[in-house]
């Protein structure tokens, strides 16, 4: 008896996209289905560690790819874990992974944008519908009796049908009923070449029927290739990472990366090593070229798969890399961990700790190499641009490492890049900055703001501009938090220009200092009045030398949380300490001079404060009152 089921809405949406736009290279459907078959075998091998009876009478795991020209079908069959009827309904009719669901919910309906997005994702099983107008899946879960097999059929529209079948062999076969424009896949040569390209690294044998040359029977009739009953292995069938580095081509590394990451772009860099010593393992790690849409989710699945002696143990083994390197993809194959290792155990294992440290060092090494190439005269333009590309995609995540990975903080600091008052591009390293520091300059200055434009026009910068001192712009959300962990670079302190008093030290000449002191002295009575008028808003009011064109600005005390960070925290619904800022005034500014003896002193004082807040990216506490005061003065 067949039962009809509807696809979950998200699946229907995904299928629509698959069948209506997707993929300039259709052939990846084979990679996806072979990869599912291989995963199913991995799962069986894993479960059979404790239940060897699951192997039944077929202990050799394999994938078979075959086709039937007459029926126009292509079949990918495996003897892996298989599916029960309920599993087929669940796995092939709904999207279980929350990440994938979220991804689908982001599809905009704009085909071009969606195709881009989906390229980052891989549609797995559903990619079969790129080439098929109907798919039949027959399966039986290992351990269930033959009568509890299942047949699942769908034309890829809104629904699918399932029925119970008897299936003596365990595992799954996926049969694609090819569309008219996909009949070229009914060719041994074609399929072999696709498997060679995408699935060579799969550690299981992929078998296809051998082809034989048959002479034409009648006089004058040409011979042809016919399929024999003999099967042959058409891939290398050894896990790519277990092969010798020198036997692997760059092309093979790239394809391997695409297969494990579902990315359609080449990786930016990779590193493949066999690590020996007290903990033995192989690592093959990739840096992608493009950030995934959910990079910001720190809970997001980590990208490293764990194997133990070639046996697949788990995807997304977050213990193998720190969270700030969650963009890295790859494989770790340990020789020491027990096969039954669990996630909980991983967290505590000393071997895993050693692997995590080793992986971290490797990734940093890869990034340092990319950064080095940036300045290498002999490198191609493309190679030179790789680090900048990396930085624009992943720089903000890497910065989290400053607060997370103290042991590598110095290495991370060297990898940072910023825009600055002297560079629009985000390309200034702290070492570049130091090399350009003015004589007598004692700190690396930076300013944090929401955007580069806001940073560039900030009043706090005025004196630095005037003196030609470079200031770094920090415009990533994580910057302030990250910078709180980086107080110095190579012996030079980092100093926010919006915190504490400006002390340009040797950069300020004696005459300037003296003039400032005198101005401050004569301004004292006004200052006292200002403090009184603003006592609910400002912690203190003082005269500053940092302003040139602006009348006033707000700063926080050294060690205090910046106003910008406090705002970000509030926006994110978190508690921020209520720190009152310090109002700094430019005693030489006409507006400030006007204060003395003004009948509107109180209004002017509040306007001065609120404007400083606006200039800094904040909003007056009572915007309407601010507008009223300004209007009163204007009219
Ligand atoms: N050959 C197979 N044998 C057993 N189960 C399968 C097979 N193919 C697919 N499945 C099941 O169907 C589910 C959905 O497959 P699909 O390819 O859409 O996503 P996935 O493999 O989970 O994710 P991804 O392709 O992104 O790795 C799989 O998780 C698996 O449980």
Overall mean pLDDT? 88
The largest pleated sheet is described as: 9 strands, mixed
Shape by Cα distribution = elongated
Helix-strand category: alpha+beta
Sequence stretches where pLDDT stays below 50 over 5 or more residues: none
Strand content: 15-25%
Instruction: Work out the helicity level.
Output: 25-40%
DSSP, total strands: 23
Bound molecule kinds, no repeats:
adenosine-5'-triphosphate
Family: Belongs to the heat shock protein 90 family.
Subunit structure: Homodimer.
Region (A): 1-343
Function: Molecular chaperone. Has ATPase activity.
Write a concise synopsis of the structure shown:
With 635 residues, the protein is of the alpha+beta class. The chain is built from 21 helices and 23 strands. Strands 1-6-5-4-7-3-2-8-9 form a 9-stranded mixed sheet, with helices on one face. It has a 6-stranded mixed sheet with strand order 16-15-18-17-20-19. A 5-stranded mixed sheet has the order 10-11-14-12-13, with helices on both faces.
Description:
With 635 residues, the protein is an alpha+beta fold. The protein has 21 helices and 23 strands. A nine-stranded mixed β-sheet has the order 1-6-5-4-7-3-2-8-9, with helices on one face. Strands 16-15-18-17-20-19 form a six-stranded mixed β-sheet. A five-stranded mixed β-sheet has the order 10-11-14-12-13, with helices on both faces. Helix 9 (350-374) runs antiparallel to helix 11 (386-404). The structure holds adenosine-5'-triphosphate. Adenosine-5'-triphosphate (ATP) binds at residues 36-37, 40, 78, 80-83, 91-92, 122, 124-126, 172, 262.
